[in-house]
Sequence to fold (315 residues):
Amino acid sequence: MLSGLSWPAVALLLAAGVLLDLLLGEVRRWHPLVGFGNLAYALERRLNRGGWRIPRGALAWLLAVLPLVALSVFMCGVAGLAAHAVLLYFCLGLRSLRDHNLPIAAALGAGDLATARELTGRIVSRDTCDATEADLAKASAESLLENGNDAVFGTLFWFAVAGGPGALLFRLANTLDAMWGYRNERFLQFGRVAARGDDALNFIPARLTALSYVLLASGMGAKRRAWRCWREQASAWSSPNGGPVMASGAGALGVALGGAARYDGAIEQRPLLGRGPAAGAGDIVRAWRLVLHTTLLWVFVALVSALLVTGATHA
Fold:
């Protein structure tokens, strides 16, 4: 292991981090990732000017990420196993996905479209001021499926590879991609390193996530549909990692995602994902359960494999 930890220790710490996240949820004040976002914003304002935008973006990425990852390595060396579990807790966003999305489903179920629009606007970048119930349910379900990888499974994968510092590296890189990875005049060159770095770190986790969505689809018909949607639709999506995750997830749920969405007042036609009717309030809950069950599957596999390694060692 790159972390220097044994696999049984990694598996136990991984389970502990997930449990802490489910029990405690997102830190309400002084969240480290919020502070990191402020740092990233300050670096971008300072360096995203003049020429040499790509090298400046690379420098900004290095200044934002490497000192914090180095500090996390030092902390884990000093504080030991507890530091790994705490770092994973701070990097995970499983309960946050539930806390931000299930209220949208509840508002839609109660017919409170105004509240649903406000809540959805907090988690997506698309316009929601005149969104329909189907638009809001689609936006929430897409956010759950995609962030299942970005906020949960990618973090767990890199924790398994490199412990707490690995989880932190992934989440910081993912945050910078979310802030700088836009294909517009301001960020097209400056954010290129952030976007490509996130693509590289996400390549394996995204496909493991897509495979997990296939395996956990309810029934063989749904599994086959999820697999076909992944293989046939993912390549049309603009994100090389978001495509497999969202296509397989939509196929597993048996709903239609993608399509038209409004950004900055303009309608953007995105490729269709999945097969079935338009998403509704109940599909938000189903998407959350798919993400939760996938997390539990990964924890179960980690713990069982740790038991097998321990047994083989003592045989």
